[in-house]
Amino acid sequence: MCTRKCSKCIGITLFPLATCAIVSNLLLYFPNGQVLQPSEITDLVWFFNGIVGAGILVREKCCSCHFCLLTKKTSMLLSVVLAVLGFAGGVYCAVISSLGLVGGPLCDTGDGEYIYPFRNDTLDNYLFNQTTWSICQEPENIILWNIVLFSILLVIGVIEAVLCFIQVINGLTGFICGTCMRKRKVSILYDCGS
């Protein structure tokens, strides 16, 4: 098993996920393509969970191949550190996205004032009761917009956290045992035969 190949595959997989997370988070600022006042945007969007958490922190892991000039062990140890940051970013994205889904969006219920109509609704969760969605008048389709984008961010955050956790194990294995087990076995067999 080659830990460097595994690390490269994980990095290649994380790059499009991080890009999708950044785009999804940016879209939350423009419900239905509308430009709103900052005070009219759901507060959890300002936590930058897709931009910083699942985006920048995870992209740092993707781009760790720049450290290939370092020794193999140092490179794998640095990969572990970056994977831990990526894991934290993925978990952060998943947690904030979950809170965004549970709390619901900030919207105008018809009186011109933006409120969170579903934040303290303990009896009936709006996610499973689509008839309550009509309470939000402006921005149009804000509930569906938030559900789709926060769900995408939640899934991306979970996948990134799992991949980064695998990379932590992979990097530690590469640091402790070496980056390529196959080459090591061949050299041991060769040394024993002479």
TrEMBL record:
Predominant location: membrane
Transmembrane parts of this sequence: 12-29, 41-58, 78-102, 142-175
Membrane topology: Multi-pass membrane protein
Keywords annotated in UniProt: Membrane, Transmembrane, Transmembrane helix
GO cellular component: membrane
Pfam families per the UniProt record, alphabetical: L6_membrane
Keyword Lipoprotein applies: no
Key word Transmembrane helix present: yes
InterPro entries: L6_membrane (IPR008661)
The family this protein is said to belong to: Belongs to the L6 tetraspanin family.
Annotated protein name in UniProt: T4S1 protein
Organism: Nothoprocta perdicaria (Chilean tinamou)
